Structures are given as C-alpha cells and as structure tokens.
Amino acid sequence: MLDLFIPKPTGVEISIKSNKLVISKTNLDGKILSINDYFVELSGYKENELVHNSHEMLRHPDMPRSICQVIWNNIQYGKRFKVIMKQLAKNGNHFWLVLDIEIKKDNDGVARNYIAYGEPIPKKTKKNFENLYKKIKDIEDRHGIDAGIEYLFSYLDEHKLSYDEFIEKSIGKKTTILNSFKGIFK
C-alpha cells in the first residue's frame, strides 16, 4: 500500500488525446486492480503505485465528494454510470474525463468488479462543470456531503433533467470512442 501523498494542485491542465482511452478496473471497494498504459502516463504514477490503492488518490480537491458518493450509490446498485471527473496527477497537474463505469458480473449475475472507460471532456462543457462543482463543493464544505447531493438533485430538478439526461446533454454526443471498447474486458 502506497503511503498516500496528496500533491498540491498546480492549476495546469493536462490535455487528453481524443483517440485514446483511459481505462481502469477496480474491485468492489474501489481499489485499483489494473490500469492501461495511457492512464499511467496521464497520472504520472508508476503502475505499481496505483494498483491496490483507492481511486480516491486521484480525486482532485476541487471534485466534490458528493459526486463520488452519487457514483458509488449507483454502481453499487448495479447501475452503469457516466460522470465527469477532475483528476489529480502525481505532479499536481489535472485532467478532466468523461467516465463510463460499467459493472462486470460473474455467471450468477453477482458484481465482481468495475471498469471505467475515460475520454476527454468536451471543451464547451468544462466551464459549466467547474462552476457547478464549485457550488456543490462550497455547500458540501459548509453542510456536508448529503447537502451537496441534495443541491445536485435540486439543480437537476430545476433543469427538468435526470442525471443521465444531464450528462448526455452536457457531453453533446451519444457515440464515442468508448462504444468501440465496451464489453471487451472481462
């Protein structure tokens, strides 16, 4: 287990290649089991520094824990989930990803792990999420994670969107490089 060193954010954004995917596989507790080479490259960590550690080590401090809780609430109940995440690299730089998290099940239908496929966030979307996540984070810092979650769902109600509709509308596309890779990892 890596002694968790949290780098200080630099404010420098890492550009994500549009023709590459960031892929990670985690156990049911969120511990990283495997990652692809591009994930290793972006994160700045060595593979052995990431494997068997929590994805939490990559959460940028600007990223509300409320959003992470919404992710877990959904995938633990077997719901495939898309989310926009700001990740923190080892050197303090950051990168934004649209993550599509799928649940892998055994032959009896029991969840055995999660696979996240990440691709770049559309440029037009980033500012909106920076603003929304800042509001959620401010509320969360003052009133707790549950208040952050309540704000998110109030925001969605105000816009008459489900969470899934909100993400699809935000990323502005339904077909992506991800569609080429879905389901190839067991």
Search tags:
186 residues, alpha+beta, Beta-Lactamase
Characterize the structure shown.
- There is one protein chain.
- Helices cover 38% and strands 21% of the residues.
- It is an alpha+beta fold.
- The longest helix has 21 residues, at 123-143.
- The chain is globular, with a radius of gyration of 16 Å.
Q: What can be said about this structure in brief?
A:
This protein has a single domain (about 20-180), classed as Beta-Lactamase (2-Layer Sandwich), CATH 3.30.450. It has helices at about 35-45, 45-50, 65-75, 125-145, 145-160, 165-170, 180; strands spanning about 20-25, 30-35, 80-90, 95-105, 110-120. It is built from seven helices and five strands, in the order E-E-H-H-H-E-E-E-H-H-H-H.
The SSE order reads EEHHHEEEHHHH
| Biggest sheet details | 5 strands, antiparallel
CATH class: Alpha Beta
Q: What coarse outline follows from CA principal-axis ratios?
A: globular
Q: Please count the helical segments.
A: 7
**Helix content range of the residues, please?**
25-40%
Fold topology:
Layout: E1 22-26, E2 32-35, H1 37-43, H2 47-50, H3 65-75, E3 81-88, E4 94-105, E5 111-120, H4 123-143, H5 145-158, H6 163-171, H7 178-181
Antiparallel strand pairs: 1-2, 1-5, 3-4, 4-5
Helix pairs in contact: 3-5, 4-5
